């Protein structure tokens, strides 16, 4: 059966939204997906205007996500969207995701998956019930050199993992820009829109997911210190966490949005018995691999010596740098290939299935809740509970 | 007047082609262009098969570029392609480009523009005659930090430019892989397909264009040493050139495809009276700016302190690395915005017009011819002639 | 009054010792100090043999430190050593230091100052009583760019300091080399020679001193996780500590000797309200300075734009890298200039007095004791007590 | 036979001299050499005053090099200096060197060896006649990772060498500081003190020596472009040279002292059939080694996997950076070990003999003369003649 481009319906992401534009580029890159319809803002006027700018025909340019989901579900299969992409602030993830699943649509959703762990668990149940596919855009696990790192750990090249250091410093909330009309900082520092954590919810979850994704380990204990550094904030803008993993390894996770002068400096180091690896998101095409008694190696995107997983997620030859948008596009592409395989009645390969889903979403929400609880406790170690 | 997506017709770039896929991604990224039709191979069977894989409907999937150009020109404006993209080897650039221009289509073409300087001049004449737009994909000038570099030179921040060092070492032709069935190396080392120069035509032209683009200067004299390092080749796979520029500055251009272990290590340094800049293509989001008596600065993509030109060509916030595909996409986007403005009867802005065109194409072919002539001469300096 | 070279008497540091050779080089570099006598090993035979290899005349080549201190104290001033340098393992620091002070000799001593906090306090009392000078070789504070960092913080260039991240990963104890006859690892993993902490005593103290030295802040609370990663060890070989400083800033200190593949990768980041700094010991001539809204700057050793403190501690012009031995030599040189000023009856300048002393020694021992106590507690935060 | 410290007599290098202080530190570092006497300035008053500051006793503090050489030669062997170190400007190298050799003293001399090729050849003859040892301080060949590079080339790890790129940009002569009383720039831009070349004589010779030292090849043809960039100068302050080596390899040598914003950025890349190496003087502890089909490796000073030659020239463990002064000290140490072996009647090992000598001096002067001749010629290639 021939399957054409997948049709995407976007919820949120209208004019002036940041992450919506990123999702569209990521969906465009490989020519496997087309923006078919949208409910691009909670304000119907803005929604329509945004749709026109994106060349949506009027009948596919909806005023609300409810309208979009309901009307699309009544269309013949050949015109109906295949999936929705939800790029609203955190508090507005759950309802459209649930509605889409209930109407038989697959879902792509920006992280964190929901506002609360409870909502996340409901989505998890619904996904399992329906057999539909949910892709959660933990972007950083889409980078080829992150895939390479994960594969090398899995293959035992470093022996047993002993220690993980992950840090994610940003500086963009160093000043109280939420008081000066900055839309991005306004909702991220507002508990009603962001949830119970600011910095840890926004970027700490990325760091935790990356550590678990590369190492194949799970966090089992945490000791968290959350800080409100800029006066007047209601949510943490900085934090440090001691970690224990299920194999006994220890770790440290540092996230900050008041690290003045930093851009988006996510870095991870994973130490094993025989060697270690180091990866920096801002120079994503290089994976540093260090050994006990041999020269450090620089594994680089696009080379023939890389693992199949790394090569599968690369579009250009070595020396032609790929970046954030390509990493993002890898999530979309793998999701699209999975859906297309299912439509054709084939089993998606493990490489196609390599994108974060609802289970990572639940784990991310549990991370937030556990971190906030630990931060409020005088006890050193708290068990990581889901 | 509302203008939808621009319709692209691709010539070449079928199955297993490298650069065709890159052009498609670059055209996709911003959602301004759609692949509308194609003549994707000189072999009609391969062409059709390639088109089907790219979801082209049968009536838009042509067996030859002649057929495509002729049939498309007969379609109503609303269905007709807006432009062709030519991604065949060098020897097959001229004929389809000329045919497209003669039928009123704009053209995007991979560099070098043609096989000979004479062909390039003919295209130049035709472009001027028709008033159509030609975009030549000297990718590296699409990077935001290259725009920033150019702007800072233009603004006189470094004073008069005194010296330019540009090097472009690659290692992928270190072995005679053209004898082992490598398609990419086979055509690039074949004079009938590549022209009179190998390495200098393929990558030396990029280096020369980048030096002139950033500095705003023109090469006026050269002293070239071309080398065939791997036995049995007919074309240079390595070369070094001393340069003089029109303001009296001196320079060096080094290009090599036998620099074993290098990926795509294009680097440029431009020295002025008061300071200098340095840019590496493999870490494209950083521009190093050095001063006589102050700390070196790292200008980074996506920051508010950058020039309008740099910001206009960026899609993500600082710390979210952009790469080769985004640089490539900037050429397509600026080309598309120019065409769309023209369709709407508006004047494209200088920022929209910032992509290489037929004049750079002529200059690139002149570079090749001058370099080959100088390399064959015992005289130290040769004037750069067009 | 003319003062010639200062005469140094070395205790420990004989054949096959590592740190003794480093101290001698550091003392030699500036031509201000000469090795005048030694008691170079606890084994009198080895001591004598080591002395001969270092060109000590027989009458200055002593069999024990007691003999050296006593005999030297009886010599006329013009022949007598000016100070002792103690480079024995930790457990053998206190006794010779105390004996030297009691006989009127200044002291240089490798860190940590003693085996216990109690011993350190006794030395502190004795130093204050005698008015003699004690220099403790926390090497890393001798680097010019560390001086630059400290000065910039002091000058308020970054505003109030908010967060400090310091990490010190080494890999050399990844394997149980102490069981294979490695002398360096044998004593460092032996509580009777090293004290109550392994990794934190050996390198965690460096990290803590560096953080306090650069920031001018003091640690007030800690939450420590110490680990024995390699089976069979009695002391920590790894650890992570959450920190609070006296101005409310938070921090993280990570030290590990099982970070396989790392050499001596001490790194520090200090974040303020307006900007931040980053320094890596393995590339010590560069200080990265980051700003909220301006390009990152690379401050480099040897430039005219640096602070007086940085310039005072540099010997070569910019671009001529200085390293670990020069940083070490800065401690010796400043110590020597201080002593020489005193001999001449002059007041040492603040720049001369810029070397760690007995107070830093006490603080380092308190760090070790507090960390070990916190690591054994279920309570999250412990006050830092001296 | 017991041999104590070697006694050094210094010519030049008094107050305010730069390179004299560097030589003294380099000689001090390993405790093998002592400054025994000096004629530290051509001005007798300055000479004496400089000597007192360096703690020279009056009878060893000479007013002229002639006096020093003559008087020392009359002293008994046990008091007599072993060698002279000449750190005057270029024009004042030959006479004291010749006089010292005639009186039986070994010689250390700063590069370039003399003012003219003719003088250099006379010294070469005299050195051969007398059997004395001359060490020429081409500092950069003293770095451990340069030794490692040389060894790997020699061992054939990269196959046949095909291309060498060496660049040495400095910025310190970007302004006409010689007109503002800068002593260093005044003599370096004065033909009567520097010789027939400025930039190429001062730093181009370093670059050429490094290329030949690492590759084991010899330059056979050159095509030089020398430039006077700053108005009013009599000597080149910038230049670019195309090279051919005796095995057919090609190369480029770039040297500039008007590269605004550069410190001392000597870099070299050597490409062979199977891989290549890259070394930067400003980060001297890392040697980048690149391969056709395997990850790039970072060889680092102080590791057990390095060649014997690299390890022999290292003083600290890995991760404890060594720098310019240690590289300089390696020349002195190897020279001293050679002399001491000779005194003991032993044969110096090849590792001891690994320092540049009079033959490199002659080759360096020939480089200058050939480059200046080629720069004045319209012919592309000139043979390298000695």
Task: Tell me what you see in this structure.
4 copies of one chain form a homotetramer. With about 375 residues, chain A is an alpha/beta fold. Chain A folds into 2 domains: about 5-130, NAD(P)-binding Rossmann-like Domain (Rossmann fold); about 150-315 and about 365-385, Dihydrodipicolinate Reductase, domain 2, CATH 3.30.360.10. Helices cover about 35% and strands about 20% of the residues of chain A. Chain A contains 12 helices and 14 strands. A 9-stranded mixed beta sheet of chain A has the order 13-12-11-10-6-9-8-7-14. A 5-stranded parallel beta sheet of chain A has the order 2-1-3-4-5, with helices on both faces. In chain A, strand 3 (about 85), helix 4 (about 95-100) and strand 4 (about 105-110) form a beta-alpha-beta unit. In chain A, helix 1 (about 20-30) crosses helix 11 (about 325-345), helix 4 (about 95-100) runs parallel beside helix 5 (about 115-130) and helix 9 crosses helix 12. The longest helix of chain A has 20 residues, at about 325-345. The model of chain A has no long low-confidence stretch (mean pLDDT about 95). Chains in contact: A-B, A-C, A-D, B-C, B-D, C-D. The interface of B and D includes residues 175, 225, 238, 260 and 262 of B. Strand 13 (about 295-300) of chain A pairs antiparallel with strand 13 of chain D, so a sheet runs across the interface.
């Amino acid at each position: 059966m021939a399957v054409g481009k997948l049709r995407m319906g976007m919820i949120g992401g209208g004019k002036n939204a940041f992450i919506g534009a990123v999702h569209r580029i990521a969906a465009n890159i490989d020519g496997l997906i087309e923006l078919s319809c949208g409910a691009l803002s909670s304000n119907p006027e803005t929604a329509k205007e945004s749709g026109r700018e994106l060349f949506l025909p009027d009948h596919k340019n909806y005023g609300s996500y409810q309208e979009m989901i309901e009307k699309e579900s009544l269309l013949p299969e050949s015109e109906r969207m295949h999936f929705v992409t939800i790029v609203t602030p955190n508090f507005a993830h759950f309802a459209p995701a649930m509605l889409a699943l209930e109407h038989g649509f697959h879902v792509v959703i920006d992280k964190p998956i929901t506002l609360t762990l409870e909502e996340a668990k409901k989505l998890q149940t619904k996904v399992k019930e329906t057999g539909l596919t949910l892709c959660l855009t933990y972007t950083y696990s889409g980078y080829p050199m992150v895939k390479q790192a994960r594969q090398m750990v899995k293959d035992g090249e470093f022996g047993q993992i002993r220690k993980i250091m992950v840090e994610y410093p940003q500086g963009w909330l160093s000043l109280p820009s939420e008081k000066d009309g900055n839309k991005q900082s306004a909702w991220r520092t507002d508990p009603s829109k962001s949830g119970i954590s600011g910095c840890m919810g926004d970027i700490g979850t990325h760091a935790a997911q990356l550590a678990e994704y590369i190492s194949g380990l799970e966090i089992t204990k945490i000791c968290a210190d959350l800080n409100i550094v800029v006066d007047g904030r209601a949510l943490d803008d900085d934090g440090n966490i001691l970690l224990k993993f299920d194999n006994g390894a220890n770790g440290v996770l540092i996230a900050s949005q008041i690290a003045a002068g930093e851009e988006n400096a996510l870095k991870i180091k994973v130490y094993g018995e025989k060697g270690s690896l180091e990866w920096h998101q801002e120079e994503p095409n290089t994976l540093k691999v260090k050994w006990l008694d041999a020269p450090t190696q620089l594994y680089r995107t696009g080379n023939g010596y890389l693992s199949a997983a790394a090569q599968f997620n690369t579009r250009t030859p070595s020396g032609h740098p790929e970046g954030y948008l390509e990493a993002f596009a890898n999530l979309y592409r793998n999701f699209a290939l999975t859906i297309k395989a299912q439509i054709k009645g084939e089993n998606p390969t493990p490489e196609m299935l390599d994108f974060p889903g609802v289970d990572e979403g639940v784990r991310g929400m549990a991370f937030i809740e556990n971190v906030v609880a630990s931060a409020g406790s005088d006890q050193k170690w708290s068990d990581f509970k889901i």
